[in-house]
Amino acid sequence: MPLFSCRRVCIPLLLCACALAAFFLRERILPAGAEKAAPAVLRVGLEDHYPPMAFTDAQGKHTGFDRDMAEALCRQINARCEFVIEPFDDLLQKMISGGLDVMIAGLAALPERRQYMEFTEPYYRSSTIYIGRPGLPVTKEGLRGKRLGAQTGSMQLDILKKEWSDVATVVEAPFADLFGMLARGEVDVVLADALACYDFLKSRAGKDFGMVGDPLQINDVLSLARIGVRKGDRELTASLNKALMTMRVNGEYNHITRKYFPFNIY
């Protein structure tokens, strides 16, 4: 065969062989889609009614500080959020059973909760306060015979049971019902997170109420709100911590905060 004919036949064959070899080698080294991995799906638990942290607006859209934080965090870690919107206590049960990957609901890192979830670094700070009619003394005699309300499943409910059940009636209810019960006189005092009281106290229904007594003593458990992560997933916990830090540095955290509060919450 003339030399030029061999070149015309052999060179294209050689190029095809190289291309095929490169393709199969690539398939063994890089799985399909490795150049741009699809976002992971995270099952994120948010409260159904805990304004201004989580609530349904007049247009029927679930929104709030926690919702905005969840969406921003998922963008930061390239994950897709699947939101599970339920009452607080139901979300805790889903964390116990493994039905959630993340719970964003102002969680206190109580020792018993550490048995079934990890915790991120704090994402806001707050206090626990008593809300009632001005002048009501928060003492054994002042609360004797009163009805004290707190959210089902909350640490505030545990505090009421421990501190006041010998002189007062402790009432538990979904957070959505608590301030309505207070306004109607069905409970005399509500113990709750101060930020969660903000919307009620500035509303028309809350004009006759205010903080009574002193805020509970500040410590890391009572004042630092954290994000819960499925037990054992330290990689996801670390990713969320890194994302929180990034959002604080790039201003996104402050941008979200200013939508709901005229003051710093960190």
Automatic annotation (TrEMBL):
Keyword Ribosomal protein in the entry? The reply is no
Keywords of this protein's UniProt record, alphabetized? Signal
Write one Pfam family the protein is assigned to. SBP_bac_3
Span of the signal peptide: 1-21
Which InterPro entries does the annotation name? Solute-binding_3/MltF_N
Residues covered by the Solute-binding protein family 3/N-terminal domain? 41-264
Q: Which SMART domains match?
A: PBPb
**Coiled coil spans:** none
Identification of the protein by name: Amino acid ABC transporter substrate-binding protein
Q: What is the lineage of its organism?
A: Bacteria, Pseudomonadati, Thermodesulfobacteriota, Desulfovibrionia, Desulfovibrionales
